[in-house]
Structures are given as structure tokens and as C-alpha cells.
Write a structure and sequence with these properties.
Layout: H1 24-27, H2 31-35, E1 42-43, E2 52-53, H3 60-72, H4 87-96, H5 113-124, H6 130-134, E3 144-147, E4 153-157, H7 174-178, E5 180-182, E6 185-191, E7 194-201, E8 203-204, E9 211-217, E10 232-233, E11 235-237, E12 240-241, E13 257-263, E14 266-273, E15 283-289, E16 298-306, E17 314-319, E18 333-339, E19 345-353, E20 364-369, E21 375-378, E22 388-393, E23 396-401, E24 406-413, E25 420-426, E26 437-440, E27 483-487, E28 493-496, E29 502-511, E30 518-528
Helix pairs in contact: 3-5
Length: about 525
């Protein structure tokens, strides 16, 4: 189950309320907004002097002022379950001009209409165009990846017995096969011939928001994502899904597996535990997993990171695929990208020698670039510098593409940053990461009312449910969302023409909150190879 004030929160979606028109800056809305312009956040583009402001950046302070007003009125991040959620119970009703959810118990603050419109205008601005995203990258002689407009599509629903959009049976049939009705997340990794998928708080016969795991064959050609995917869930006994319950580790609501990896032929899973409503006590714990997997077969080893200062609560893990210049030595390293305060974070990077992964000995954190442009490494987590500046990231996914020699990253983003699923790529783990490109937006890509529930649609779109938590009381009133865009490395495809140009197809899992299921998505990027391109390393 995803975490933050939106409680899987129903991220702020770009809807018609964020309509176009001239920007608030052009209208000169208020002196109060103008006073904040110099403090507007910058979205990290290419690090070599090429960072560009986010679209509408001059007015992002309007969104910040609304956020501050909500906090002053008693709304807090992570409090959606109690009716005091910052985004769900305050910011979303203000920006959408709708009533608060039925469970809200605090009054909305008074916010000037012009300030509301200013924040809306920020997010009516188009995301960076492909041309803008590629600007500055040609000089690096790297393959250029540009999103193909209109290419994002849903392939199929992975959870439940019936696809809520098509009304056709799903391939996984999780209700009849495992008594599993709904879940989210779906981080994937490979181990001993299988792709494992780690799912979050699960609705089903086991109850208690416990988490679940599925697998598919990882052999080349064993699964063709274009024809859909059948997930085989691990079971506690025939017909009942297995749950993740490391001994001595709390695994209640909002406490979920966040990442997994195979190191030296040993399987490891990281779980987020010690959850609190304000996200100030959560910690990430590394567990070693024995095969065959059992509910209690996750042995806790060490705490990797802990709030309130921890920056590696949600993460993406990857073994070094080949030697990488800029690392401290010639050791084989486990690479770890992470986020701290859920959906209020940038993205950070750490490395741990594979030989000491269980103990964490020798872990180092990317601490920025030196004067010569080389990465600096520090043994203290507090010294970690962001590799992606966004401020709203929750879930991230990073894979390696050996054909392009590029790292590919997806992450969810929300106001006051761009709303939707963003994509960046880089020749090295620390960057420079490309200017983010928007892979998916629920409104732009026609998902609302088709496979993400929209309560404002009349007649009802028929998509509500299953739901989890307090949303189960009135599922038809709860807006769906989009988060946790987890790439599947095995399924990514590069097709190159003889001249070198071509296309990249990305396949990733996406959670939709209402219905509380996971869908398989595809987005396509155009590949442009510079004739003078050399090795990115």
C-alpha cells in the first residue's frame, strides 16, 4: 500500500480544473506571489550547466502558499486515514473546487481565488517538449530518447478476476486462484530463473493489510508482455496467497516490501516498517530470503535508513552491470537509488560493496560533483546529495539497458511538480539525468473513467472497487490515482534500424488506487543515435 498524505493517496491529478489560458504571471496576479518568485524550485535537468526551470516555475510559490495555509489549518502529510491529510483533505478540494471527503474533520482554510488559479495555471503548462528535453544532450554524444506522443497505453489489468475496463477475465485471476482481490505496487527483480513482484498492502482472505508476492518465468521469450501477463502468486497453501511477515518486524498498513535484489545468488527484500501517520518514524529494513519462500522466511539483517532524516525509505536496487568510472574502487557494488519522506522527496544514490551487502560495511553516498566533475562519495547519509530534484517523488524504478548503455528511471510526481509518471535517463548512476519527460498523465492519456475511477463522471463509470482502508466505506466517492511505475527490465525492448535510430518500448506496472489494482502499461520512446556517439562511460 502506497504511502503519503494521499494515502496512496490519490495523487493530485491534472484534470480540467487545471485548464489552459494565459498564466498567472502574465496577469500579474498578486504582489504576494511575486515576492516568492526568486525562491521557486528548479527541476534538475542535465547537470552540466543545463538545468531548466519547471514549466510555470514562476508561480509555484502559489501552490506552496496553499500548502502552508493547509498546514496552518491543521492538515498534515500522512494523515488521510484520520481525515486530516494535507493533499487529500485540503489541497485537492481547494484546487479542484470540490467538497472534502466525507471523513474530513477540519475546515478548509480561506484561500484567495486568484492564488488558487495561479497554482492551477502552473500545472496547465505543458511538460517539457521532446525538443526541450533533448536540448543540451546532443553535445554529450549520447543516444537521445524522446517520448512518442500518444504512445502510452494500458495492456491489461494484473489483479482481480475481471478487467474493470474491458470486462474480460484477467490472465492472473487472482480472486479465484488465490483469494486475492486487490493490491498495489509490484516492484520486480530477478532471482534464479524467476521475476519476482513485490506487492503492497493486500485486500483478500488474509486481511490485516498484509503483503503478497508473485512470480513469472524470467527466461528470454517466456513472457510476451504484448499479449498480457499471468502472475503466479506465491502461496501459503493451495488457493491462498502467501504474505510477508519477517519475524519481529511490523508489517501492518503502510508497511510494505519496497525493493528486492539477487546478490551473490542470494535473494534479499527490503521492507518499510515502523510506520507512523506523519512518516517520521518509518525505517527500511534489509531481509534475507530463503527458498522456497515462506511467510516468515524473511530474516531481518539491518536497518538501511530511518526517518526523520533517512533518504532511502523507498528505493530501486541494481547490481553493477559493468565497470563504471567514478566509483571509489574496483569493487562490485550494489547501486541503490532512494527517496526519503514519501512523496515529499528528491532522489538520492548510495553504493554498497556486494561482498558486504548484508552488513552494510563500506556503504557510501553520492555527495555531489567535485570541481573536475567527478562524483564525490561520503560515508555519512546526511551528506547525500540529490541526483534528481523534484520534491514530490514517492516510488522510483531504475533499470539498465545494455544496448543503449543507459540507466532508465521512472518515478511518480505530483504538484507542485509535474503531475504524472516521469521518465529520465543517464549514462551513469548519478547523472547527468536527462530532463524529465511525461510518460503518463491520467487526463492526457484518457485513463480517467476508463481504468481509473473518477467520481465526477455521470453516469457512474463503474470502476469503483476494490478499495482499501476507509475508502471501503464509500468506494464510489474515492478518486483513483496513479503511482508506483515499476519498470520490468527483462521486458524492455530496443529496436534499432541499420542506420542506428529506432525505438525503445518500456513495460511497467502502475497502481491505480481505485480500483485498488495494478495494470501493465507500455510507453514508447524514439531513439536518435548521434553518428559521433561514443561510449557513455
Amino acid at each position: 500500500m502506497s504511502k503519503d498524505n494521499t494515502s496512496k493517496g490519490i495523487p493530485l491529478l491534472a484534470r480540467s480544473v487545471f485548464g489552459g489560458g494565459e498564466t498567472a504571471a502574465q496577469r500579474g496576479i498578486t504582489a504576494g506571489v511575486a515576492r516568492h518568485l526568486l525562491r521557486a524550485p528548479i527541476v534538475l535537468g542535465w547537470l552540466l550547466g543545463l538545468a531548466q526551470p519547471a514549466p510555470g516555475y514562476a508561480d509555484e510559490s502559489a501552490c506552496a502558499q496553499i500548502r502552508s495555509a493547509c498546514i496552518s489549518a491543521g492538515f498534515t502529510p500522512g494523515a488521510a486515514q484520520s481525515g486530516n491529510g494535507l493533499q487529500l483533505d485540503c489541497m485537492q478540494p481547494i484546487l479542484r473546487g470540490t467538497a472534502q471527503p466525507s471523513g474530513s474533520n477540519r475546515a478548509l482554510p480561506d484561500v484567495a481565488p486568484l492564488l488558487v488559479q495561479a497554482c492551477r495555471d502552473v500545472h496547465s503548462a505543458a511538460p517539457p517538449t521532446a525538443a526541450a528535453a533533448l536540448a543540451g544532450q546532443a553535445a554529450t554524444n549520447l543516444p537521445l530518447l524522446s517520448y512518442v506522443d500518444g504512445s502510452t497505453r494500458k495492456i491489461g489489468q494484473l489483479i482481480g478476476d475481471v478487467d474493470k475496463q474491458t470486462h474480460q477475465p484477467t490472465l492472473s485471476r487472482t480472486v479465484s486462484r488465490y483469494q486475492l482481490q486487490g493490491t498495489d505496487l509490484g516492484y520486480s527483480f530477478e532471482h534464479q530463473g524467476k521475476i519476482y513482484f513485490l506487492f503492497g498492502d493486500t485486500v483478500g482472505a488474509q486481511g490485516h493489510a498484509l503483503d503478497s508476492i508473485a512470480q513469472v518465468d524470467s527466461a528470454a521469450g517466456a513472457v510476451d508482455p504484448e499479449h498480457g501477463v499471468r502472475l503466479d502468486f506465491l502461496t501459503e497453501r493451495a488457493g491462498l496467497y502467501l504474505t510477508v511477515q519477517p519475524p519481529g518486524i511490523s508489517m501492518g498498513a503502510f508497511e510494505v516490501p519496497t525493493a528486492g535484489i539477487s546478490v551473490n545468488n542470494q535473494m534479499y527484500v527490503i521492507v518499510d516498517t515502523n510506520h507512523s501517520e506523519d512518516w517520521q518514524t518509518d525505517r527500511a529494513v534489509l531481509t534475507r530470503v530463503s527458498l522456497p519462500v515462506t511467510a516468515t522466511g524473511f530474516k531481518p539483517l539491518r536497518t538501511i535508513s530511518q526517518r526523520p532524516d533517512g533518504r532511502f525509505l523507498k528505493m530501486a536496487l541494481h547490481m553493477m552491470p559493468e565497470p563504471i568510472r567514478g566509483l571509489p574502487d574496483a569493487n562490485q557494488y550494489v547501486l541503490m537509488w532512494g527517496t526519503g519522506h514519501y512523496r515529499h522527496s528528491d532522489v538520492y544514490l548510495a553504493i554498497t560493496p556486494a561482498a558486504t551487502f548484508e552488513t552494510g560495511a563500506g556503504i557510501r553516498y553520492f555527495a555531489g560533483l567535485d570541481a573536475a566533475g567527478a562524483p564525490r562519495w561520503d560515508f555519512n547519509e546526511s551528506a547525500a546529495a540529490p541526483v534528481i530534484i523534484n520534491g514530490t517523488v514517492g516510488d522510483i524504478s531504475v533499470i539498465w539497458n545494455s544496448q543503449l548503455h543507459l540507466w532508465l528511471m521512472t518515478y511518480d510526481s505530483r504538484p507542485p511538480a509535474a503531475a504524472g509518471i516521469l521518465f529520465s535517463y543517464s549514462p551513469t548512476p548519478w547523472g547527468p539525468w536527462s530532463t524529465p519527460q511525461l510518460l503518463f498523465n491520467a487526463q492526457r492519456d484518457g485513463a480517467l473513467g476508463k481504468f481509473i475511477h473518477d467520481p465526477s463522471i455521470s453516469p457512474d463509470d463503474g470502476l469503483a472497487g476494490p478499495t482499501i482502508g476507509k475508502a471501503q466505506l464509500q468506494p464510489e466517492t474515492v478518486h483513483g490515482g496513479n503511482y508506483a511505475p515499476y519498470l520490468v527490465e527483462r521486458w524492455s525492448r530496443v529496436l534499432l534500424a541499420p542506420a542506428g535510430n529506432g525505438q525503445l518500448d518500456l513495460y511497467y506496472l502502475l497502481s491505480t488506487w481505485n480500483p485498488y489494482v495494478v495494470v501493465l502499461m507500455n510507453s514508447r520512446l524514439r531513439i536518435t543515435i548521434s553518428q559521433s556517439a561514443g561510449s557513455p562511460h
